[in-house]
Amino acid sequence: MPDAKVKVGIIGSRFEADIHAASFQIMPEEAEVVAVASPTSAHAQELARRYGIPRVFLDYREMLSQPDIDMVTIAAPNSLHAEMTIAAARAGKHVVCEKPLAMTLEEADAMIDACGRAGVLLLYAEELFFTPKYVKAKEMADQGAFGRIHLVKQSEKHFGPHSPWFWDVERSGGGVLMDMGCHGIAFCYWFLGRPRIQSVYAHLATCVHGDKTVGEDEAICIIEFADGAIGLVENSWARRGGMDDRSEVFGDAGLTYANLHMGNALPTYSERGYGYAVEKAPSTAGWSYPVFEELWNYGFPQEMRHFARCVRGREQPQATGEDGRVVLEAICAAYASAGIGSKVALPYRPAGLSKPIDGWLAKKRK
Ligand SMILES: NC(=O)c1ccc[n+]([C@@H]2O[C@H](COP(=O)([O-])OP(=O)(O)OC[C@H]3O[C@@H](n4cnc5c(N)ncnc54)[C@H](O)[C@@H]3O)[C@@H](O)[C@H]2O)c1
């Protein structure tokens, strides 16, 4: 039924699953969430109650056997993205996979292949392609506002993730470069119009969370694009004060600065504190920067609406498995670069690694 709403099943029931459910609720015209699958029953039930989701499954495979579901969104730990995507494709479901796409390039290729064979879309959930402030910057760039762009910077920083699996590199694949560098790399690539990545250089360090993880909590990554432009991606899990997300663009005819949260926030002082300021801010007393319409300003509802419209053939996918693979290849090269201390040329296909961070850890431990 081409005019019916796209029926969505969400895999996972915590942080990002909640964002998916809320996003479909904010823009409900194109899609409706009909099921959630997660092994933690209480969380799944609670998500279902909060968003009025009628069906709850403990095993995502059971959800995949529901014939009416058109599209699944994967909001589970990184190490599960490949098996879930491939299973969903085989069940004939369109797939929205959270970032980073996978743990290895072999997995990424298998995911793209499985979706291609099944004739379903593999949509890569990179919301920065839909973030209104960043979309405005790109529109201006595409209109020539900044002339020839030679430098794009993107950074995301906070004091570390909310769930234990992020700190376990066997389940996450790496530290902050894997977790948030994927956004910055995708952003630079997208912003510049997807030029080929020629080389990557990265410096990584574990500065404050060495008790919790072997992963890096500070990452600086420099990307050389084939058109001569440079991408500078800075990420931290060691930055106090809640989420910071910003981008800068420099060309021979102009520049723009986009501070995603604080640029929109209300500079606020409170002796007593209040409910909520911004993602991962530990307190609201003293000076704070409360954001409003947080999900909208990130672009999550717009992203999910776009994906639903792609399923109906009304829009062409703007964020695909191929984008996720490009980003993952750059991440693998970045870890290898940090390991050897010099830049790594692409195409880069590491052999025998089970996760990107191995490229760094293997050298670091010697
Ligand atoms: N786009 C973004 O900005 C953004 C933000 C946060 C997280 N993410 C991504 O979303 C994904 C999930 O992260 P999160 O923050 O929601 O983590 P989380 O720890 O909050 O939630 C993970 C969920 O996965 C579920 N899960 C674990 N094993 C499962 C299985 N076998 N079957 C089904 N569900 C299973 C857990 O029960 C839990 O509900 C990750 O890939 C992460 O990188 C993206």
Give a brief rundown of this model.
The chain is of the alpha/beta class and 366 residues long.
Give an overview in words.
With about 375 residues, this protein is an alpha/beta fold. It has two domains: about 5-125 and about 300-320, 3-Layer(aba) Sandwich (Rossmann fold), CATH 3.40.50.720; about 130-295 and about 325-345, 2-Layer Sandwich (Dihydrodipicolinate Reductase, domain 2). The protein contains 13 helices and 15 strands. It has helices at about 15-25, 40-50, 60-65, 80-90, 105-120, 130-140, 165, 170, 175-190, 295-300, 300-310, 320-340, 360-365; strands spanning about 5-10, 30-35, 55, 70-75, 95-100, 120-125, 150-155, 195-205, 220-225, 230-235, 245-250, 255-260, 270, 285-290, 345. The strands form three sheets. A seven-stranded mixed sheet has the order 12-11-7-10-9-8-15. Helix 2 links the parallel strand 2 (about 30-35) and strand 3 (about 55). Helix 1 packs across helix 11, helix 4 (about 80-90) runs parallel beside helix 5 and helix 9 packs across helix 12 (about 320-340). It is globular and about 50 Å long. The model has no long low-confidence stretch (mean pLDDT about 95). The site of nicotinamide-adenine-dinucleotide has 24 residues, from helix 1.
